[in-house]
Amino acid sequence: MGIHALDEIGSDSICKVCISNGGSCCQGCRHLATGLGCQQRNTSCTAWLCGFLKYFLYETGLLEEWNDFWKQVPGQEYREDFTPELFFVNKPLHLPDIRSLSVALAADLQELSKSRIAIGFILKLREKMDKYIDQLDNSRLPSKKKTKIKRKIKVLSIPFHRFHNELYNYRQNGMK
Ligand code: SF4
Ligand code: SF4
Predict the structure, then answer these.
(1) Which of 53, 154, 60 is nearest to 106 (CA)?
(2) Helix, strand or coil for residue 80?
(3) So which domain of life are we looking at (predicted)?
(4) Is 40's C-beta closer than 6 angstroms to any atom of ligand 2?
(5) Using CA of residue 95, residue 101, residue 103, residue 107, what is the dihedral sign?
(6) What are 52-98's pLDDT values in tens digits?
(7) How close is the Cα of 87 to the center of ligand 1, in Å?
C-alpha cells in the first residue's frame, strides 16, 4: 500500500535528483547490495519520509493522511521492522496521482543543485525542511512559533518555481 502510494505521488523523480547529488537515504545500509540495490525493503523504510517528501506532502495537504496511516502500522524500526503478517487498520491510505507535482519539484531541485556552487546545497535544504516540518508536528508549540516556522519553510521554498506553479493549479482545480 505504501509503495503504491509513493508511486502515485511520483516520489521516484525526486529521489533520482537526490541520489544523483549523493543524498540517498540507503547509503551505508547493510541491506544495500552493490549493483543490485535493496535486498530487504521493509515497511519502515516505506513509511519513513525525508525532508523533500515531507515538504511535498505538507504542501499538498497530504502529510496528515500519510502520518495517520503509518501510526496504525506496528513494529517499525530503523531500516527494519517487526510488522506482523496481518494487522488491522481503520484508515486506508489514499493519495492522488500527483506525479506532475513531483516532476516539477524534481526539476526545481535539479536546477538548484546546478546553480548553487556549494556542495550538497540541496541536501542541506532537505535537512532544514525536515527539521522545520517536524517542529510543526509538535502540538504544544505556540501558534506564533508555528507561524514563524511556516514562514521559514516558505522562504526555503522560494526557488521552487515550477513546483509552485503546479501546486497553484492543484489547489485551484484539484487533480484527477
Ligand atoms: S532521502 Fe528522500 S529523496 Fe533522497 S533518496 Fe531517500 S527518499 Fe528519496
Ligand atoms: S533496507 Fe531501507 S535503507 Fe536499507 S537499502 Fe533497503 S530501502 Fe534502503
Answers:
(1) 53
(2) strand
(3) Bacteria
(4) yes
(5) negative
(6) 999 999 999 999 999 999 999 999 999 988 998 899 999 999 888 89
(7) 27
> If you write DSSP's letter for every residue of 81-106 in order, what string do you get?
E---S----SS-------HHHHHHHH
> What Cα–Cα distance (Å) separates residue 53 from each residue in 85, 87, 140?
27, 26, 24
pTM of the model: 0.93
Measured distance CA(65)–CA(98) in Å, rounded: 15
C-alpha cell at 140: 504544544
Grid coordinates given for 66: 500519510
The reply to whether ligand 1 has any atom less than 6 angstroms from the CB of 55 is no
Amino acid 117: pLDDT: 65
